[in-house]
Design brief:
This protein has three domains: 78 residues; 152 residues, Rossmann fold (3-Layer(aba) Sandwich), CATH 3.40.50; 67 residues, no CATH class. 50% of the residues lie in helices and 6% in strands. It has twelve helices and six strands. α8 links the parallel β5 and β6. It starts with a helix and ends with a helix.
């Protein structure tokens, strides 16, 4: 209608001269402005619609790709087999056995790989020009109550001997704490020969069976001489004992180590103290006859009448008078090399779980 009116108006003014054009614009200025506004609005609406639909399409495609990717990951995750450690270890063991069978060179498992090892000498047999201890000077008494199993208690005894020598102290025969795990009330004298232990170390450390009377009445914890594993770091260095324990020892004349589990390190460590620790472990700690007798019977049955002359020295140290004797009635065979058999009598439920046995 608007265009028709404009056409009619233009038809009316065609025969007229140009002087009437201004009159026409004044009469139709609202219509022209409306046309421009309508055209601009249409362009704006078109731009908005294009933007909206483009954004919707983009999000739709990306969500489709994400869902497809998740589906692919889900499918891949479902298809991916679960790792079975037992089967994997079994395959590795089989591969190792096959590879070993096809090896050309023959390896002797019992052959000593290092020639220098044959020249090694026991640490306890070494002598050093200087000694850390000062004979005649005594700073007090050291008591030890060791926890853990037999091996942990043995380590604690050897460490106690070394610490007593380091601090120039007298060592009271160590006590063993009762454990709810082991349920073993045995003390030092039930396992090791006390007199032999004290006699073997008499030139290195002064050892007594119990505290003197004037120190027995003291409340060790009240005077601050009770030292637990929280007071000494694990595998502590000798300097830690000199800084922490020695002042207490010189002040109160007695200290009590409670627990004492692995409280003395190995490196760096003075060679003289290490020699003393080895002497305690391999020479001074000798089992009581009852244990030696059982050990002799076990060794005799394990070896099945095969014996080597080099083993007699070790057997003598461990078993004493109960060392198996070579009888003419028993057919002992000389062997070219000495071998070792480790017998572990403790295979508990937690070990079964770790081994993944069915």
């Amino acid at each position: 209608v608007l265009l028709h009116n404009l056409k009619d108006d233009s038809g009316k003014f065609n025969p007229c001269k140009g002087g009437n054009r201004h009159t026409w614009f004044r009469r139709n200025v609202k219509s022209v402005a409306f046309m421009f506004v309508l055209t601009a609005f249409m362009f704006l609406l078109d731009s908005v619609m294009v933007s909206v639909f483009g954004s919707i399409n983009f999000h739709g495609s990306s969500s489709t790709r994400n869902s497809d990717g998740r589906e692919e990951d889900s499918v891949a995750h479902k298809e991916r087999p679960t790792v079975e450690m037992y089967g994997r270890l079994l395959n590795l063991a089989s591969s190792a056995l096959v590879a070993e069978e096809f090896k050309q060179e023959s390896l002797n498992f019992w052959e000593e790989p290092y020639q220098e090892a044959s020249k090694w000498t026991p640490c306890a047999d070494k002598r050093y020009p200087t000694s850390l201890g000062k004979p005649g000077e005594n700073n007090g008494y050291i008591m030890v109550s060791a926890n853990g199993g037999l091996n942990q208690q043995r380590v604690a005894i050897c460490n106690a001997v070394a610490v007593a020598s380091l601090l120039n102290a007298t060592l009271v025969l160590p006590k063993f704490l009762y454990s709810n795990v082991w349920k073993d009330p045995s003390q030092f004298g039930d396992i090791y020969q006390e007199d032999y232990f004290m006699r073997m170390l008499k030139d290195d450390v002064h050892i007594v069976q119990e505290l003197p009377l004037h120190l027995k009445s003291l409340d060790i914890e009240a005077i601050g001489s009770l030292i637990t594993d929280a007071d000494i770091v694990k595998e502590a260095k000798p300097i830690d004992y000199i800084r922490t324990v020695l002042p207490l020892l010189m002040k109160n004349k007695v200290v009590h180590f409670l627990g004492f589990g692995n409280r003395l390190g190995f490196d760096p460590f003075p060679p003289e103290l290490q020699r003393l620790r080895c002497k305690c472990d391999f020479h001074a700690l000798k089992f009581v006859p009852k244990i030696q007798e059982v050990g002799s019977l076990l060794i005799k049955r394990i070896r099945k009448f095969q014996y080597h002359a080099a083993e007699r020295q070790l057997d003598k140290q461990l078993l004493g008078d109960f060392t198996p004797s070579i009888s003419s009635k028993e057919n002992y065979v000389e062997r070219g090399s000495s071998r070792y058999l480790a017998l572990h009598l403790r295979f508990e439920e937690d070990m079964v779980a770790y081994s993944q046995c069915d």
